[in-house]
Design a protein that fits this description.
The protein is α+β, with helices and mostly antiparallel strands and 232 residues long. 22% of the residues lie in helices and 20% in strands. The strands form three sheets. It has a four-stranded mixed sheet with strand order 4-1-10-9, with no helix packed on it. The radius of gyration is 22 Å and the shape is elongated. The relative contact order is 0.13.
Amino acid sequence: MRLGALVCFASAALGSVLPGCSAAHDVSPSDAGVTHDAGRGDGGPTGALPEGFCATACVTTAESSCFSPRMCAEYCGVHVDAWPSEVGAAFARCAAEDPLCYQTVEGCILASLQPRGSIHSVRLQGSGLGEHEGRTVRVWHDPGRSMPFGGEAVITGGAFSFEWEEPVDVSVDGASLMLLYIDVDGDGACTGSVDVTAAVRPAWNGDYLDPVFATVLAPPLSDPDFVCDFAP
């Protein structure tokens, strides 16, 4: 695994990521366009986290880790000033317990702070849909969810809006897929050859402690054929 870590590091240095390597470790402060006060040594935090936090959190990383103490310290130095104590503690847990070979640092932090079953805001808006004015849009969570949620709205002023508070599975890539159709013929059913369909994945807002997952649907719509096969 130490050889695997070396391969992962080398692939990142060459600007590519090999299968099984995480893309999360491109952590050079200069590459990120971040400048630090060299007088601070380890890039220790200010505010909620104590001075020297990065050195303490990164002194030892997980066994067989793809995230070495040096990489850990560099990553921490880039981000620590923006971290409240809860995020810092989650980062330290991830560095100590997760090899971070198959998920990103951000993904590990988010999963640590927002475990499965946590309630999240999911928002879906539509805009620029004037050609469908007055038509009904119906939306639902993808069929992989045991307790699906959704709703319907009339497109008004070329727009619509939904918001839910649900225990959805989430990641840094966003919340689970949402499926929808615009009922073009008004028959109350999803017909792929007639109605306009879409599949969207609400995106994460980047907030670890108060994550919101949202997206805006606007033309051109993807109109995938499979959506109507899963209409509730």
